[in-house]
Specification:
With 803 residues, this protein is of the alpha+beta class. Helix content is 50%, strand content 19%. Helix 5 packs antiparallel against helix 6, helix 5 packs antiparallel against helix 10 and helix 28 packs antiparallel against helix 30.
Length: 803
């Protein structure tokens, strides 16, 4: 076995890894080649154990992930078999198949397994694996496959319905008052056979082709049940037409059930047709995201504007964006200014104004102005590409609740075949006359009414729609385990700075005149301290003109001293003014203490040795923070504030937001420990943060939620990212999780209850009590309805609204 290894930087690294591998039990030989960065092993250990041994030595085995299209899936048992076939290949690390959009995501080691081997493994069990295409997205390929299937189903359904109409007229015409034009019974039956034969063989080939392919490999799926059921009714009827003496010799009437076989095929095709049409809407959200990316970009080559494919744009290229166009890549504005509609990324309905120096996001819509931007992120590194990747990952992965359906699906079809066989024998032995007819119809009803496809669709359709709806609302869910956990949360812990607050200081209090504010802001304008910048920004908001500074000195940790228009200006702490011999009046001292008790940074301003103003600067609460906390508390979820800030400031913010639990003065390295302490107390904890110092706590929490305005490290550690950086998105994400999990439970309940209740009914369990025997035609209609019901119920999530 040969494995690639990353992290080999020198000969001693290679030697160290080789020694470590040879010391690992189960590895007989090991040779590490620094030049090729590969390890060649003689071992019987499983691949996972070998990779664990490499990683324990401080190195890594590089892996790749690809998303492919798979053809031929019809139910949950198909998914289970295909996943098992791929997972058994050496070099495959993880396989996840989504029945709803017919895609398979494979994580693998390229040196161990090739695409051709994957295709052969899948083909060996009757399915087809299509390679990825750079020109189209997985969603486009899945939609193309669905459209092709949709057209094929529609053609077969129309022809099948016409043929079935003829059969029904022949079979029931006299009951409806139609004349049979003197047709004898034998000729009537023969004409039904003529009409049903193309219906059975060509229209029903949609099912039979899959059945034959799987039978060659000793497998079965939902289509197998349909094929056996319809051929039982068709074969029985054809035998009655061609060899009626076989029945007459036994004293039986040669009855035919062509309409049963035809009705089953047409009704199930109708169900699959409606399901295919509805399924196209489940991945609509991500297709819309993919559609936001322009195919071309206009870049400057010297003084010339050139249109090139988007894939050819490089970081640093100067990109021209005309009014009304979508920005092709992430970048920074070099020239021009314009309003930009970023709603598809942030969820904010109002356009934002962008000018030189501002960052812009690819896929957003430029307003009325022309922009010249420098590309900073291109290809798969853009914000939109990362959003699409996260949504795909969430839609592809399976939440823990889905594994129950998978385990049942593995046994479903064989179990149904056994039940059908037992049903036939029971009716044959104990059933009323004509026993053969009753036995056949009951066995066919069991085969037809069973619906493993409803089990297979129950989870992925809800996940597709739920995560897609979240993306539309600016809520990106990285994995479905987080989606499942979020609905069980009992406590949400918020970081303070940049999460509940705006993350930058703002002048909140000014007790003085406008003229004095002009002097103070003029003095502070020469400083780069955040407090100084907050004072200057407030003066500009109030449209207060600033003067000129004759001299300026910054006093570290205390304030500033400046001369303006011949007057001495002092702005800073109580200590600074006292050191400069400035007397502080009682009223000013009272105001100062009150502002300090509110957790604000309180300062004094003096002109010519006299205190003229008391001011305070604080990191202000975000507009949506109060509503976010209230919404969580109304939902029965506890809220806590976690911050490294001092206790007084933290308590002041907590009082404003009505947060009862405050964890203040927590060092960055201890935040994860605080989360662990809450978990040990029995809480299911979500951590909401935005900074690098929050990353360990985000990773330690049951669900990590990051603000998109924060650091990349925080977003990487989080399970959910809020693109609009509004704390109210936390409550919305939890509500979406609850709605999605409720939807999955409804789907699974329907799928389980349907099969548990109706399979015994089809087998004849109610016949001794009520004399009711379920017709295979009704069974076919019920089976088709079950899949359509599951998909339609999942589509209700598209109407999800916060609150």
């Amino acid at each position: 076995m040969t494995l690639p290894v990353s992290g080999l930087s020198c000969g001693s690294c290679a030697a160290r890894l080789q020694r470590h591998l040879l010391q690992t039990a189960g590895i007989e030989q090991a040779q590490v080649n620094l030049a090729t960065a590969q390890a060649t092993l003689a071992t019987t250990l499983p691949l996972d154990n070998i990779i664990a041994a490499v990683e324990s030595a401080g190195f890594r085995v590089p892996e790749q992930t690809t998303t492919l299209t798979i053809r031929g899936l019809s139910c949950a048992s198909c998914v289970r078999r295909a996943e098992t076939a791929l997972a058994q290949l050496s070099g495959i690390r993880q396989v996840s198949i989504n029945l709803a959009n017919a895609t398979v995501q494979v994580r693998y080691i390229a040196e161990q397994v090739a695409l051709q081997q994957m295709q052969e493994a899948v083909q060996a069990i009757g399915f087809q694996l299509l390679p990825s295409c750079e020109e189209s997205s997985p969603e486009d390929r899945a939609e193309s496959e669905r459209q092709q299937e949709y057209r094929d189903l529609r053609q077969r359904l129309i022809i099948g319905a016409l043929l079935l109409t003829g059969v029904l007229i022949l079979d029931h015409g006299s009951m409806m008052g139609w004349h049979d034009h003197g047709l004898s019974v034998s000729l009537n039956h023969a004409l039904q056979a003529v009409l049903t034969t193309p219906l059975q063989w060509w229209v029903g080939w949609y099912f039979h082709h899959s059945t034959l392919t799987l039978l060659r490999h000793g497998a079965a799926n939902m289509h197998t049940l349909v094929t056996i059921g319809t051929f039982s009714a068709y074969g029985y009827s054809l035998l009655a037409v061609l060899l009626p003496e076989l029945f007459q010799g036994s004293g039986l009437q040669a009855e035919v059930y062509f309409e049963t076989a035809g009705s089953i095929i047409v009704l199930i095709l109708l169900g699959r047709f409606l399901e295919a049409r509805a399924r196209g809407r489940t991945s609509q959200a991500i297709r819309q995201l993919v559609g936001q990316v322009p195919k071309q970009a206009r870049v400057m080559r010297g003084s010339e504007e050139v249109a090139i494919p988007l894939s050819h744009v490089l970081p640093g290229d100067r990109v021209v964006v005309r009014p009304g166009e979508r920005l092709p890549v992430d970048g920074v504005v070099l020239e021009g200014e314009s309003s930009v509609d970023e709603s598809m990324i942030t969820g904010e309905s109002l356009p934002v104004w962008r000018r030189a120096g501002d960052a812009v996001i690819g896929g957003t819509i430029n307003g009325q102005g022309a922009l010249l931007c420098s590309a900073t992120r291109v290809g798969q590194s853009t914000v939109l590409a990362q959003i699409i990747a996260m949504v795909r990952q969430a839609q592809q992965a399976k939440p823990p609740i889905a594994h129950l359906a998978d385990r049942i699906a593995a046994l479903f079809v064989p179990t149904v075949l056994v039940i059908a066989a037992v049903t036939f024998l029971a009716w044959w032995i104990w059933g009323p006359e004509p026993v053969l007819t009753h036995a056949m119809l009951s066995a066919v009803a069991v085969l037809i009414i069973a619906c493993p496809c409803a089990l297979g669709l129950a989870t992925p359709t809800s996940i597709l729609v739920g995560t897609g709806r979240g993306a539309e609302m600016g809520i990106l869910i990285r994995g479905n385990a987080a989606l499942e956990t979020a609905h069980r949360l009992t406590c949400v812990v918020f970081d303070k700075t940049g999460t509940l607050t705006n993350g930058k200081p703002r002048l909140t209090d000014w007790h003085g005149s406008r003229d004095d504010l002009a002097l103070v802001a003029t003095a502070e304008r020469a400083s780069e301290h955040p407090i100084a910048m907050a004072i200057v920004a407030y003066a500009k908001e109030e449209k207060i003109p600033l003067g000129k500074t004759e001299s300026f000195a910054a006093i570290p940790g205390q304030g500033v001293q400046a001369r303006i228009d011949g007057r001495e200006i002092l702005v800073g702490t109580r200590r600074l003014l006292q050191q400069q011999g400035v007397a502080i009046a009682t009223d000013a001292e009272t105001q100062l203490q009150q502002l300090e008790q509110e957790g604000k940074t309180a300062l004094l301003a003096a002109v010519e040795g006299q205190v003229v103003a008391v001011l305070a600067v604080a990191d202000t609460v975000r507009p949506g923070s109060r509503a976010a906390v209230a919404a969580l508390q109304q939902a029965g979820i506890g809220v806590a504030l976690l911050t490294g800030d001092n206790q007084r400031t933290a308590q002041a913010i907590a009082r404003q937001l009505a947060i009862p639990q405050v964890l203040a003065e927590v060092l960055p390295g201890d935040k994860a420990a605080e989360i662990a302490r809450l978990q040990q107390a029995g809480e299911v904890v979500a951590m909401v943060g935005d900074g690098i110092n929050d990353a360990p706590a985000l990773a330690r929490a049951d669900v990590g939620i990051a603000m998109a305005a924060g650091t990349d490290v925080a977003m990487e550690a989080a399970d959910i990212t809020l693109m609009h950086s509004d704390p109210q998105g936390v409550a919305t994400a939890i509500q979406l999780s609850r709605a999605t999990m409720n939807n999955i439970r409804q789907n699974l309940f329907w799928a389980f209850a349907y099969n548990v209740l109706l399979i015994p009914l089809a087998a004849g369990a109610w016949y001794p009590l009520f004399g009711i025997q379920l017709s295979p035609v009704i069974a076919a209609a019920a089976m088709g309805l079950s899949s359509v019901t599951v998909v339609s119920n999942a589509l209700r999530l598209r109407r999800f609204r916060h609150g």
